[in-house]
Amino acid sequence: MCVEVTDWRGVYWWVVLLWIVGVAAAGDPPWPCPQRCECLHEILMVNCSSRHLTSVPEGVHGNTKRLSLANNRLKMLGRRQFSGLGQLRELDLSDNMLTMIEVEAFLGLQNLLTLRLTRNRLKIIPVGAFSGLSSLRLLDVSENELLVFLDFTFREMASLQKLEASENDLVFISNRAFNGLLNLQELNLDRCNLTSVPSEALSQLTGLSRLRFCRVGFTTLPNNSFRRLNRLRELTISHSPGLDSVAANSLIGLNLTSLTLSYCNLSAVPYAPLHHLVYLRYLDLSYNPITSIQSNLLGDLLRLQEFHLVGGSLLRVEPGAFRGLVHFRLLNVSSNRLLTLEETIFHSVGTLEVLRLDGNPLACDCRMLWVLRRRLRLDFDGQPPSCASPVQVQGRKFQDFTEAELPGLFTCRQARILNRKPQEVRTDEGHTVLFFCQVDGDPIPSVIWVSPQRTLISTTGRIRVLPNGTLEVRYAQVQDSGYYRCFASNAAGNDSISVSLRVRGFPASSSRNRSAHFFLEGWSLASTQMPVNGSQGPQPFPFDVKTLVIAVTMGFLSFLSSVAICFVFMFFWSQSKGQIKHTATIDFVPRSAGAASTGGGTSMETGRFTMKLI
Ligand SMILES: *[C@@H]1O[C@H](CO)[C@@H](O)[C@H](O)[C@H]1NC(C)=O
Ligand SMILES: *[C@@H]1O[C@H](CO)[C@@H](O)[C@H](O)[C@H]1NC(C)=O
Ligand SMILES: *[C@@H]1O[C@H](CO)[C@@H](O)[C@H](O)[C@H]1NC(C)=O
Ligand SMILES: *[C@@H]1O[C@H](CO)[C@@H](O)[C@H](O)[C@H]1NC(C)=O
Ligand SMILES: *[C@@H]1O[C@H](CO)[C@@H](O)[C@H](O)[C@H]1NC(C)=O
Ligand SMILES: *[C@@H]1O[C@H](CO)[C@@H](O)[C@H](O)[C@H]1NC(C)=O
Ligand SMILES: *[C@@H]1O[C@H](CO)[C@@H](O)[C@H](O)[C@H]1NC(C)=O
Ligand SMILES: *[C@@H]1O[C@H](CO)[C@@H](O)[C@H](O)[C@H]1NC(C)=O
Ligand SMILES: *[C@@H]1O[C@H](CO)[C@@H](O)[C@H](O)[C@H]1NC(C)=O
Ligand SMILES: CC(=O)N[C@H]1CO[C@H](CO)[C@@H](O)[C@@H]1O
């Protein structure tokens, strides 16, 4: 028995001894590790993630630098929840069920650099919740249910550099919410329910250099949207499908190097708002229904290097579109509706390095020859363009053409006017005359008509160019007479013909000649000097001039005669009455007193006044 007892004692001491030795060997210094957590002493980390915790565990060592409580069931953080962890650099509270953070919850974490609160259920952050976090550099509150940022929420966070607030239900950011964030460089507000730019709140972020808004409900960018953000370099606004207008002064005060306005509803390049961004290097207007890039309007963007307009509705890039841009090196216009891209759009095609032109119905004629010639030097980003027409090269990629087969391909046929038979028309006033100008060429030539006064004739008005190139002169007038000229031109050349029109006036209409002439002067001015493709131009008169003149004259005559008859009638009437009463007396009961009857003691006196008739 005795032997047995001593044996048990011996075993006990052995166990104690082994335990002490074991702990001493395992780590230095030996930390007490909170229950259910894993302590990585070498990196001073306490890992309590995914442990079904419902509260912050006790006993985390004061030297801990990183504490993870991610993926637990924490519902709220109380006051001074982490006191005693003054050495903590990184705190991860993401993927919990936090709905509430009390004021001063993080007090004492004066060395904390990173705080992650992503994927919780926060609806509101009380003012003062973040107090004491004077060293914090990164705060992530994305994927919560935050509705508003209140004034002074981030007041004591002067070191904060990056604020991630994407995927919340933010509908409002109070004007002084960002007060105190003097060093914030990056703000991310993707996927929130803002309907307008929180300009006033943003104006406190004088150190901001990157700002992102994605999937927001903006419909317009008003003037001065980003005032005082003069350090901002990168601005992204995307997936805002209602955004269709950018006011001329909306970006004033900014000095951007990169601007993205993609997946919006812009129907034109916002030339005026961009105008002052002389340091801009990167411009992305992809996925907007923009149909053309006009000539000479981007020349102020002196340092522009990259232009992206992918997936738009581009039909045309006008010659000179990128004129003045001497550093231009990348054009990305894939997936548009471009038939061609002429070399003359660039300032100098020599600087171009990358070209994405795939996904366009390209016509492989002489206008695209410059791309073909550079096909081995240009970087197509793995997606070389291919021909949609003409038939013999349809579907072929630019890189597949060999030198040997080039002659005879990528050619144009000069514009030519087919029917050159002289067209000389003599007609009487009021008739409609057509002049033909049938053209041929590859690419299909454009046709313009010029009047005897050398103005361009538009597609609307009394004298107009029909869609098939025919000139139509309706209700011909004497002063329409003269020589008209048709010009046909394409990339390979031009051609022209001249036609003549003689209109004889009516000899009998001399008395109305002056006024008709006056009307017509005004009219022809309007119809010939209009911009050719302007839709806002004056609409053509629905009437013939002559009809109008007659109608006006007759209307005036009948008005005069009615007035005269009236006067005559009144004269006889006044003569027939023997004695005329010159005054009329009218009695009345004041309406307010009778109707309201509030019992206020208003006298129910009947009124009376006398009118003198003249
Ligand atoms: C913390 O623990 C979780 C779960 O045990 C593990 O997935 C994760 O990798 C750990 N983190 C670190 C930094 O060790
Ligand atoms: C925010 O927008 C989303 C998606 O449009 C919507 O489901 C949600 O109800 C909105 N939240 C608020 C608070 O308006
Ligand atoms: C923006 O400012 C410009 C220039 O001052 C002005 O012409 C324009 O009307 C303003 N736009 C709006 C929407 O206020
Ligand atoms: C985009 O603008 C067009 C007119 O310019 C309008 O018809 C359309 O509804 C707008 N789309 C959206 C999503 O607002
Ligand atoms: C604008 O930004 C550029 C490039 O970041 C910088 O060199 C330039 O000094 C800035 N200009 C002003 C007026 O801030
Ligand atoms: C061109 O745009 C497409 C679509 O946005 C993008 O995937 C591609 O990387 C861009 N190419 C270059 C060279 O920037
Ligand atoms: C052009 O169109 C007009 C009206 O549609 C027609 O009268 C004319 O014959 C056409 N011209 C030619 C050359 O086809
Ligand atoms: C037509 O071509 C000639 C040279 O071939 C050129 O001098 C002239 O300016 C062109 N005219 C038009 C209207 O394009
Ligand atoms: C109509 O007026 C024009 C000039 O005003 C004149 O040359 C012409 O002879 C006049 N026609 C008739 C028919 O009086
Ligand atoms: C003369 C001229 O420029 N006409 C243009 C009017 O617009 C159409 C397309 O909208 C062009 O095809 C014409 O060339």
Automatic annotation (TrEMBL):
<dbReference type="InterPro" id="IPR003598">
    <property type="entry name" value="Ig_sub2"/>
</dbReference>
<dbReference type="InterPro" id="IPR013783">
    <property type="entry name" value="Ig-like_fold"/>
</dbReference>
<protein>
    <recommendedName>
        <fullName>Ig-like domain-containing protein</fullName>
    </recommendedName>
</protein>
<dbReference type="InterPro" id="IPR001611">
    <property type="entry name" value="Leu-rich_rpt"/>
</dbReference>
<keyword id="KW-1015">Disulfide bond</keyword>
<dbReference type="Pfam" id="PF00560">
    <property type="entry name" value="LRR_1"/>
</dbReference>
<dbReference type="InterPro" id="IPR032675">
    <property type="entry name" value="LRR_dom_sf"/>
</dbReference>
<keyword id="KW-0393">Immunoglobulin domain</keyword>
<feature type="signal peptide">
    <location>
        <begin position="1"/>
        <end position="26"/>
    </location>
</feature>
<dbReference type="InterPro" id="IPR003599">
    <property type="entry name" value="Ig_sub"/>
</dbReference>
<dbReference type="Pfam" id="PF13306">
    <property type="entry name" value="LRR_5"/>
</dbReference>
<keyword id="KW-1133">Transmembrane helix</keyword>
<dbReference type="InterPro" id="IPR013098">
    <property type="entry name" value="Ig_I-set"/>
</dbReference>
<keyword id="KW-0732">Signal</keyword>
<dbReference type="InterPro" id="IPR036179">
    <property type="entry name" value="Ig-like_dom_sf"/>
</dbReference>
<dbReference type="InterPro" id="IPR003591">
    <property type="entry name" value="Leu-rich_rpt_typical-subtyp"/>
</dbReference>
<keyword id="KW-0812">Transmembrane</keyword>
<keyword id="KW-1003">Cell membrane</keyword>
<keyword id="KW-0472">Membrane</keyword>
<dbReference type="InterPro" id="IPR050541">
    <property type="entry name" value="LRR_TM_domain-containing"/>
</dbReference>
<dbReference type="InterPro" id="IPR007110">
    <property type="entry name" value="Ig-like_dom"/>
</dbReference>
<keyword id="KW-0325">Glycoprotein</keyword>
<keyword id="KW-0677">Repeat</keyword>
<feature type="transmembrane region" description="Helical">
    <location>
        <begin position="548"/>
        <end position="573"/>
    </location>
</feature>
<keyword id="KW-0433">Leucine-rich repeat</keyword>
<dbReference type="Pfam" id="PF13855">
    <property type="entry name" value="LRR_8"/>
</dbReference>
<dbReference type="GO" id="GO:0005886">
    <property type="term" value="C:plasma membrane"/>
</dbReference>
<dbReference type="Pfam" id="PF07679">
    <property type="entry name" value="I-set"/>
</dbReference>
<feature type="domain" description="Ig-like">
    <location>
        <begin position="407"/>
        <end position="500"/>
    </location>
</feature>
<dbReference type="InterPro" id="IPR026906">
    <property type="entry name" value="LRR_5"/>
</dbReference>
